[in-house]
Amino acid sequence: MSYFYPAVFKLQGRCCLVVGGGTVAARKAASLIECGADVRLVSPHLTEELEREVERGKINYIKRGFEKVDLEGVYMVICATDNAELNRKISEYCEALHIPVNVVDNPELSSFYVPSVIQRGPLSISITTGGNSPLFARRLREELEEEISQEYGELVMLLGQMRCIVQEQIHDPSRRRKALEDILPPGSLADLDEEKMESLRRRVKECISSLLE
């Protein structure tokens, strides 16, 4: 059995096409906007939520049905229509043009899947079942969301600041690695409660201060 290769896309400033104007399309467009994508949306009709995003200038809206020309200059496509024939046609076009495409709720027509995601600032935790059970992925995400607080995202940002400073101040690769691992040794995230999180934050801030002295 072959499995999928997990990856994340850098969408900042890239043109991503959403086909469809319903609630699912609105959700997909919102996710792309959060990632900094340049969202192009094609649909004869829009939900009120999408209309608001168009008015705010967040979406480049083309008010009509999909045409092949809509794929020009596109980096990624998300197809969120209830028209099976149209979905298949778009999938075939994308395959021929080597454009990644996700047809919502149709793994067979998709070249990539959109995982269930827990987002805590720069920290993203993706859960996928390879198209077998989106419901399972959603339920598991709901369970994990209770355990992973917003503080995790804050800690990741602090660790990112520390990493940049370590790279600037310490030139020996082995010493850089040791400085980072000393802050976050194996097991340090186990049973992470509020007290332990505060201790980690304090250690990172102290380390940053000492490196800047």
Describe it.
- The chain is α/β, with parallel strands linked by helices and 213 residues long.
- It has three domains: 15-114, Rossmann fold (3-Layer(aba) Sandwich), CATH 3.40.50.720; 115-148, Double Stranded RNA Binding Domain (2-Layer Sandwich), CATH 3.30.160; 150-212.
- It contains seven helices and seven strands; from the N terminus they run βαβαββαβββαααα.
- Strands 3-2-1-4-5 form a five-stranded parallel sheet, with helices on both faces. A two-stranded antiparallel ribbon has the order 6-7.
- Helix 5 packs parallel to helix 7.
- The model has no long low-confidence stretch (mean pLDDT 92).
List the total number of helices.
Answer: 7
CATH superfamily of the largest domain: NAD(P)-binding Rossmann-like Domain
What is the H/E string? EHEHEEHEEEHHHH
The Rg value, from CA coordinates, equals 21 Å
The CATH topology of the largest domain: Rossmann fold
CATH architecture field of the largest domain: 3-Layer(aba) Sandwich
CATH classification, class level of the largest domain: Alpha Beta
User: What percent of residues adopt helix (DSSP H or I)?
Assistant: 40-55%
Distance between the termini: 54 Å
- The tally of strands reads 7
The poorly predicted ranges are: none
SSE topology:
Elements: E1 15-19, H1 23-34, E2 38-42, H2 48-55, E3 59-62, E4 76-79, H3 84-97, E5 101-103, E6 116-120, E7 123-127, H4 134-147, H5 150-169, H6 173-183, H7 194-212
Parallel strand pairs: 1-2, 1-4, 2-3, 4-5
Antiparallel strand pairs: 6-7
